[in-house]
Amino acid sequence: MSLNNYDYNKDLQPLARQLRKNFTKAEACLWKYALKAKQLNGYQFRRQRPVLRYIADFLCKELMLIVEVDGITHDSKTALNKDKQREKELIEAGFKVIRFTDDEVLKNISGVTVELSKVITDIEKSTPLIPRQRGT
Q1: How far is CA 124 from its chain centroid?
Q2: Closest CA to 55 of 107, 9, 89, 94
Q3: What is the rounded distance in angstroms from the CA atom of residue 86 to the CA atom of residue 121?
Q4: What is the pLDDT of residues 92-113, one digit of tens each?
Q5: At 61, which helix (H) or strand (E)?
Q6: What CA–CA distance (Å, rounded) separates 12 from 94?
C-alpha cells in the first residue's frame, strides 16, 4: 500500500482537533512525560493524528509507530474486536502499533517509557531509517 502523507484523512480533522483539546488523563500524562518535544529518543510524535479511517492517539511518522492508550471503553468484547480490526488495517498499511492501558500509563509512566524506548530501538535495528540531522 502506498502511503500519501501517511494516509492522513482530512475528513477526520475536526474530530482529531476536538480530541486534542480533550485529552484523557492518561494521554496527557504520556504526552507530557514521554512524547512531547522529542523527549523519547529524539523522535517527534503527533497527537490525535488521522490515519486511514482512524485517529491514532500518538503517531511517529518517521518510525511508522502508533501508540494507543486504551481506557475503560476498550474493555468490551465489541470494542476489543474493533481494536483488533483497526490494528490489522494499520499493520497492513505498514505501521507498528503498541497499546497501553490507562492504568499502565498513570501508575507506571517510567515503565511505559522504557517499553516505548525498547520498541523504538527494535524498529531502528530492523528498519533502515533516513538519517536524522540533529541541531547543536
Answers
A1: 16
A2: 9
A3: 24
A4: 999 999 999 999 999 999 999 9
A5: none
A6: 20
Average confidence score pLDDT of the chain: 84
Q: How far is CA 38 from the centre of its chain?
A: 14
Domain 5-126 has CATH 3.40.960.10: yes
All three cell numbers of 107, joined, read: 501508575
Whether the CB-CB separation of 9 and 53 falls below 8 Å is answered with yes
Q: How many residues does the chain have?
A: 136
Per residue in 18-35, pLDDT (tens digit) is 666 778 999 999 999 999
Short-list 58, 54, 66, CA closest to 36: 58
Whole-number Å distance between alpha carbons of 119 and 98: 8
Beta-ladder partners of 99:
68
